[in-house]
């Protein structure tokens, strides 16, 4: 059995990752999935969350929001609406987005779209978590 598989992460704007990796975790719609070489084929919808993958001794982190993942025994292809490497995340902007989302959730205004505000908060927190892990 092979020790690695091909990983591609693509957004509408660009190819974010194209690499040979040993393992990864992805945020599926119903929870995180761990992927190793030889994984059974599946297609899953992605949620807002963190993608991590390991190549050798290095672990890489990305913030991702929505999309789909196709898992095959020798390849994982992720088509994401957004995907940012840890080093690409604008921490100040993510902190501002988190603050705005928290203010909307705490406002008590009836016109507030709470589902959208909750998603914005989750995205901002994920981006901040990934940026922090990227510093390690």
Give a quick precis of the structure.
This protein is of the alpha+beta class. The protein has helices at 91-106, 114-135; strands at residues 5-10, 15-21, 23-28, 31-35, 42-46, 49-55, 58-72, 75-85. 26% of the residues are buried.
Number of helices: 2
Counting structural domains, the number is: 2
CATH topology of the largest domain: ATP Synthase, domain 1
Oligomer: single chain
The CATH homologous superfamily of the largest domain: F0F1 ATP synthase delta/epsilon subunit, N-terminal
Overall shape: elongated
Mean pLDDT: 92
Return the string of H and E elements: EEEEEEEEHH
* CATH architecture identity of the largest domain: Sandwich
Q: Tell me the total number of β-strands.
A: 8
Strand portion, in percent? over 45%
Biggest beta sheet summary: 8 strands, mixed
Question: Can you characterise this structure?
Answer:
This protein is α+β, with helices and mostly antiparallel strands. It folds into 2 domains: 5-86, F0F1 ATP synthase delta/epsilon subunit, N-terminal (ATP Synthase, domain 1, Sandwich); 89-135, Single alpha-helices involved in coiled-coils or other helix-helix interfaces (Up-down Bundle). It contains 2 helices and 8 strands. It has helices spanning 91-106, 114-135; strands at residues 5-10, 15-21, 23-28, 31-35, 42-46, 49-55, 58-72, 75-85. Strands 1, 2, 3, 4, 5, 6, 7 and 8 form an 8-stranded mixed beta sheet that branches. Strand 6 and strand 7 (58-72) form a beta hairpin. It is elongated. The mean pLDDT is 92.
